[in-house]
Amino acid sequence: MNIGEASSRSGLPAKTIRYYEDIGLIRPDRGDNGYRDYGADDVHKLRFLHRSRSLGFSVEECRQLLALYEDKSRASADVKDIAATKLTEIDRKIRELTELRRTLEHLVHACHGNERPDCPILEELSEG
Amino acid sequence: MNIGEASSRSGLPAKTIRYYEDIGLIRPDRGDNGYRDYGADDVHKLRFLHRSRSLGFSVEECRQLLALYEDKSRASADVKDIAATKLTEIDRKIRELTELRRTLEHLVHACHGNERPDCPILEELSEG
DNA sequence: ATGAACCTTCCTGTTACTGGAAGGTCAAGG
DNA sequence: CCTTGACCTTCCAGTAACAGGAAGGTTCAT
């Protein structure tokens, strides 16, 4: 498929997809006309990149994560180390998002424009 | 407190804190010597910024989230709209992180270097 | 009072894109 | 066959969100 379809299927702008090729994250085939040609596996990788980037992982971290998939038969020690580190990070992110969610929900349901002292958000914030 | 202590308490580099001041996210006092002077509430905001940035929210989104705290007595309709939108995003992020976590965990526990066809990761990836 | 460890502003560099120009390709309609 | 519009290509410039480092002022302990 062309880059346009890969873009709409992955959710990434075509510009970003070309950039990811520039920095060596994906290597699509080329047709005789010079157009990039993406397969289903490329789209999987692009969706994966889209997701992990939006979750606060840097491009270099995404490169590592992607390598876990592509280089599955590598010595397991390395793979496990990297994966385990990322798991810890992911758990932290989930915890922090859950906290943030709780705080925001209080704001929506309990803090409707009344004055400061009785706002539950302030209590949470002042816990530190 | 000086910027150094605000930095170590919030986890943000001093450079970043100055940058956040440049773009109007925080406005610390200044001492007679010209040094920035941060209070406990500033540190709360900085920690909040640190967390939400690392969770994939842009600086502009963080500005909105911060405004929810600072502008608590604003017309609730606006506040609730923004907060509700962010809640949806947060829920999506939590779902995606949980998925990513599950996939990685499989990689660590089930996919230890053996060949492709029987690797559970590949099945997940090919679901699409 | 001198050195280390802070702080200040300013200017440049990096990462991860984003927009736009200039031009080639393709499928449909007149 | 030709053109029109929607694709695609490369390349170059701009933006966002910082990071590094120079040049210099402040504070504090020895």
TrEMBL record, chains A, B:
Subcellular location: Cytoplasm
GO CC terms in record: cytoplasm
Keyword Phosphoprotein annotated: no
Gene3D superfamilies xref list: 1.10.1660.10
Full protein name: Cu(I)-responsive transcriptional regulator
UniProt entry keywords in alphabetical sequence: Cytoplasm, DNA-binding, Transcription, Transcription regulation
GO MF term set: copper ion binding; DNA binding; DNA-binding transcription factor activity
Domain HTH merR-type: 1-68
Keyword rRNA processing carried by entry: no
One Pfam family from the record: MerR
Any GO BP annotation: positive regulation of DNA-templated transcription
